[in-house]
Amino acid sequence: MPDRAFKIPVSVLVVIHDPALNVLLLERADRPGFWQSVTGSLDAPEESLRSAALREVAEETGVAADPAALRDWQHSTVFEIYGHWRARYGPGVTHNTEHAFSLCIAADTQPRLAAREHLAFAWLPWQQAAAKCFSPSNREAILRLPEILSTPG
User: How far apart are CA 153 and CA 143, in angstroms?
Assistant: First the structure.
Protein backbone atom coordinates (compact mmCIF):
# COMPACT_ATOMS: atom_id res chain seq x y z
CA MET A 1 0.00 0.00 0.00
CA PRO A 2 1.45 3.41 -0.91
CA ASP A 3 2.14 5.98 1.80
CA ARG A 4 -0.46 8.33 0.33
CA ALA A 5 -4.21 8.02 0.10
CA PHE A 6 -5.79 7.43 -3.27
CA LYS A 7 -8.27 9.93 -4.67
CA ILE A 8 -11.93 9.05 -4.33
CA PRO A 9 -13.50 8.64 -7.80
CA VAL A 10 -16.38 10.95 -6.93
CA SER A 11 -15.98 14.63 -7.76
CA VAL A 12 -17.75 17.95 -8.09
CA LEU A 13 -17.78 20.40 -10.97
CA VAL A 14 -18.77 23.98 -10.12
CA VAL A 15 -19.57 26.28 -13.03
CA ILE A 16 -18.95 29.75 -11.60
CA HIS A 17 -20.69 32.51 -13.52
CA ASP A 18 -21.80 36.11 -13.18
CA PRO A 19 -25.36 37.40 -13.76
CA ALA A 20 -24.59 38.03 -17.47
CA LEU A 21 -23.52 34.35 -17.89
CA ASN A 22 -19.82 35.04 -18.21
CA VAL A 23 -18.08 31.93 -16.90
CA LEU A 24 -14.90 31.75 -14.83
CA LEU A 25 -12.30 29.33 -16.21
CA LEU A 26 -9.01 28.29 -14.62
CA GLU A 27 -5.87 27.11 -16.43
CA ARG A 28 -4.37 23.98 -14.88
CA ALA A 29 -0.82 24.30 -13.55
CA ASP A 30 -0.03 20.62 -14.25
CA ARG A 31 -1.36 20.91 -17.83
CA PRO A 32 -0.83 24.41 -19.25
CA GLY A 33 -3.41 25.12 -21.93
CA PHE A 34 -6.05 22.97 -20.20
CA TRP A 35 -8.88 25.25 -19.06
CA GLN A 36 -11.66 24.18 -16.72
CA SER A 37 -14.22 25.18 -14.15
CA VAL A 38 -13.63 24.48 -10.47
CA THR A 39 -13.39 20.72 -9.95
CA GLY A 40 -12.26 18.39 -7.23
CA SER A 41 -12.73 15.02 -5.59
CA LEU A 42 -14.31 14.33 -2.24
CA ASP A 43 -11.71 14.45 0.53
CA ALA A 44 -13.39 11.61 2.44
CA PRO A 45 -16.25 9.21 1.75
CA GLU A 46 -18.42 10.98 4.34
CA GLU A 47 -17.90 14.47 2.85
CA SER A 48 -21.12 15.70 1.24
CA LEU A 49 -21.14 16.81 -2.37
CA ARG A 50 -22.28 20.31 -1.32
CA SER A 51 -19.45 20.61 1.21
CA ALA A 52 -16.93 19.42 -1.37
CA ALA A 53 -18.20 21.98 -3.89
CA LEU A 54 -17.95 24.86 -1.39
CA ARG A 55 -14.49 23.68 -0.26
CA GLU A 56 -13.18 23.42 -3.82
CA VAL A 57 -14.49 26.90 -4.72
CA ALA A 58 -12.70 28.34 -1.67
CA GLU A 59 -9.47 26.40 -2.30
CA GLU A 60 -9.24 27.13 -6.03
CA THR A 61 -10.54 30.71 -6.18
CA GLY A 62 -10.42 32.14 -2.66
CA VAL A 63 -14.18 32.83 -2.89
CA ALA A 64 -16.07 32.10 0.32
CA ALA A 65 -19.40 31.30 -1.32
CA ASP A 66 -22.73 31.68 0.38
CA PRO A 67 -23.97 28.07 0.67
CA ALA A 68 -27.46 29.23 -0.33
CA ALA A 69 -26.05 30.54 -3.63
CA LEU A 70 -24.64 27.16 -4.64
CA ARG A 71 -27.06 25.42 -7.00
CA ASP A 72 -27.04 21.62 -7.07
CA TRP A 73 -28.01 20.51 -10.57
CA GLN A 74 -28.96 17.02 -9.34
CA HIS A 75 -27.00 15.73 -12.33
CA SER A 76 -23.94 13.52 -12.56
CA THR A 77 -21.72 12.30 -15.35
CA VAL A 78 -19.59 9.15 -15.33
CA PHE A 79 -16.44 9.41 -17.40
CA GLU A 80 -13.22 7.53 -17.95
CA ILE A 81 -10.32 9.01 -16.01
CA TYR A 82 -7.56 10.28 -18.31
CA GLY A 83 -4.62 7.87 -18.32
CA HIS A 84 -2.11 10.47 -17.10
CA TRP A 85 -4.21 11.00 -13.92
CA ARG A 86 -5.13 7.36 -13.21
CA ALA A 87 -2.22 6.72 -10.83
CA ARG A 88 -3.88 9.09 -8.36
CA TYR A 89 -6.71 6.55 -7.92
CA GLY A 90 -6.71 3.05 -6.48
CA PRO A 91 -5.74 -0.01 -8.49
CA GLY A 92 -8.33 -0.83 -11.13
CA VAL A 93 -10.21 2.48 -10.82
CA THR A 94 -10.88 3.74 -14.34
CA HIS A 95 -14.02 5.89 -14.02
CA ASN A 96 -15.13 8.90 -11.98
CA THR A 97 -18.61 10.19 -11.16
CA GLU A 98 -18.78 13.98 -11.40
CA HIS A 99 -21.66 15.96 -9.82
CA ALA A 100 -22.56 19.36 -11.30
CA PHE A 101 -23.19 22.60 -9.42
CA SER A 102 -23.24 26.26 -10.35
CA LEU A 103 -22.53 29.43 -8.44
CA CYS A 104 -23.39 32.99 -9.42
CA ILE A 105 -20.96 35.62 -8.13
CA ALA A 106 -20.35 39.30 -8.82
CA ALA A 107 -18.98 40.12 -12.26
CA ASP A 108 -16.03 42.04 -10.83
CA THR A 109 -14.81 39.17 -8.63
CA GLN A 110 -11.07 38.59 -8.98
CA PRO A 111 -10.23 35.06 -7.89
CA ARG A 112 -7.22 34.30 -5.73
CA LEU A 113 -5.75 31.25 -7.46
CA ALA A 114 -4.11 28.30 -5.73
CA ALA A 115 -0.67 28.56 -7.39
CA ARG A 116 0.02 24.82 -7.23
CA GLU A 117 -3.25 24.14 -9.09
CA HIS A 118 -3.81 26.99 -11.55
CA LEU A 119 -1.76 29.40 -13.64
CA ALA A 120 -4.38 31.88 -14.80
CA PHE A 121 -8.08 32.66 -14.91
CA ALA A 122 -10.41 34.10 -17.52
CA TRP A 123 -13.97 35.37 -17.49
CA LEU A 124 -15.57 34.45 -20.83
CA PRO A 125 -19.08 34.49 -22.29
CA TRP A 126 -20.56 31.04 -21.68
CA GLN A 127 -20.30 29.89 -25.32
CA GLN A 128 -16.61 30.85 -25.50
CA ALA A 129 -15.94 29.28 -22.12
CA ALA A 130 -17.49 26.01 -23.26
CA ALA A 131 -15.35 26.00 -26.41
CA LYS A 132 -12.17 26.57 -24.37
CA CYS A 133 -12.68 23.65 -21.93
CA PHE A 134 -10.61 20.52 -22.49
CA SER A 135 -13.08 18.31 -20.60
CA PRO A 136 -16.17 17.14 -22.50
CA SER A 137 -18.25 16.98 -19.30
CA ASN A 138 -17.21 20.51 -18.34
CA ARG A 139 -18.00 21.77 -21.84
CA GLU A 140 -21.44 20.13 -21.73
CA ALA A 141 -22.18 21.60 -18.29
CA ILE A 142 -21.37 25.12 -19.45
CA LEU A 143 -23.54 24.66 -22.54
CA ARG A 144 -26.42 23.61 -20.26
CA LEU A 145 -25.99 26.63 -17.96
CA PRO A 146 -28.69 28.87 -19.55
CA GLU A 147 -31.19 25.98 -19.50
CA ILE A 148 -30.42 25.11 -15.86
CA LEU A 149 -30.73 28.70 -14.73
CA SER A 150 -34.08 29.11 -16.47
CA THR A 151 -35.65 26.36 -14.35
CA PRO A 152 -36.75 26.83 -10.75
CA GLY A 153 -34.38 25.39 -8.24
Answer: 18
Q: Is residue 58 part of a domain?
A: yes
First and final CA of the chain: distance in angstroms? 44
3-class DSSP state for residue 25? strand
Burial class (CB in 10 A: 0-12, 13-18, 19+), 25: buried
Phi/psi region, residue 62 (left: phi>0; alpha: psi -120 to 50; beta: rest), is: left
Give the tens place of pLDDT for each residue, 18-27. Answer: 999 999 999 9
Q: How many domains does the chain have?
A: 1
Pair 132, 15: CB distance under 8 Å: no
CATH of the domain at 24: 3.90.79.10
* Predicted model pTM: 0.93
